[in-house]
Design a protein that fits this description.
Length: 326
């Protein structure tokens, strides 16, 4: 699978249109319906349709994006189908409160192709992802802001077996800024309910005793202090986390983790065009099945971990190009 270079040349199309956060100033736009659509057809019966729509109705800004793509593929059993739907609404109640409600749906279906001494013609993978959520932002004044957000997700992967995962993410926070000093507070709660089987298409294990159920939850609380020194911003904070994962296969096994982790960040900006940053932010995280498994038909899932500790070092720069340069 990894030695077949052709597999990396067959990327599926991705949605490039996504509305997640809308600033209040955008409510001055779209006084009339805005619609964009596209239909295409090509070789190997590759076809697709895409529709995007957005408009404003007083202080309400709904949007919709739908996409469908399919192809027979350029090899036997290389067919694929993708479909996605993104819909939501931004509601501005006044100069303080801004609400965003949304739902996302994605379907990805493809045949398995490669070495014929291993693969079978009827092998196929099918993944379905659906989430619904919302966010409420409250800009009380130029120094104080609060927010609340949450989402529920249902993620299902299927080949010879079925791997369903459900879960939710909740967060609430506040940001305070006085002169050159800022304070960030955030509380979060995350959960995952995952059922997997150690078998895959190459090593089929149909015994129900091989089913493994994971029920994980993670609570976190964080406080950060920011200080600006002209073009340099320093941030230091503390992250508290308490995680629990119960794994059940024949018998139940519970894993509890509790940690205090430092958070450090340093950034420097130059003339508003270049920003250099470095961050250190370790912590526990719930490892979603979609992110943990790269090749679903052939991955060995016995050692998969749902609740992981990661030590993250990040560094990079942001460059803003002058207007008129493409």
């Amino acid at each position: 699978w990894t030695e077949n270079e052709e597999i990396y040349k067959k990327d599926l199309p991705e949605m490039s249109f996504q509305v997640w956060r809308v600033k209040p100033s955008l409510f001055r736009l779209y006084d009339f319906p805005w619609l964009d659509s596209r239909i295409h057809y090509g070789s190997y019966n590759t076809a697709g349709i895409n529709v995007k729509m957005q408009f404003k109705a007083q202080n309400t800004l709904p949007y919709l994006s739908a996409d469908f793509q399919r192809s027979d593929g350029h090899l036997e059993n290389a067919q694929w189908t993708t479909a996605s739907l993104q819909a939501g609404v931004h509601q501005k109640f006044n100069e303080i409160h801004l609400l965003h409600m949304y739902t996302n749906y994605n379907l990805n279906k493809r045949g398995i192709w490669g070495y014929w001494d291993i693969y079978q013609e009827d092998w196929e993978t099918n993944t379905t992802f659906w989430e619904i959520g919302g966010e409420l932002e409250n800009q009380w004044n130029d120094k104080f802001r609060t927010y609340f957000n949450g989402k529920y997700l249902l993620d299902e992967h299927e080949n010879a077996f079925n791997y369903p995962e459900g879960g939710y993410d909740l967060a609430a926070g506040a940001k305070i800024k006085v002169n050159n000093t800022g304070i960030d507070l955030e509380l979060g709660l995350h959960s995952s309910d995952l059922e997997i089987n150690d078998g895959n298409l190459i090593h089929p294990l149909q015994d129900t005793l091989n089913l493994k159920k994971n029920d994980a939850s993670l609570f976190s609380g964080q406080i950060n202090l920011q200080q600006n020194f002209r073009s340099v911003t320093a941030e230091i904070g503390m992250l508290y986390q308490n995680g629990e994962n119960q794994e059940t296969r024949r018998v139940a096994r519970q894993d509890n983790k509790e940690r205090f982790n430092p958070v450090v960040s340093l950034s420097a900006g130059f003339q508003g065009k270049v920003k250099i940053y470095a961050r250190y932010r370790p912590g526990l995280e719930i490892n979603r099945f979609r992110n943990a498994v790269k090749a679903i038909p052939f991955s060995e899932l016995e050692a998969i971990k749902i609740l992981n500790y990661t030590s993250r070092w990040e560094a990079g720069f942001d460059l803003q190009m002058p207007e008129g340069i493409n």
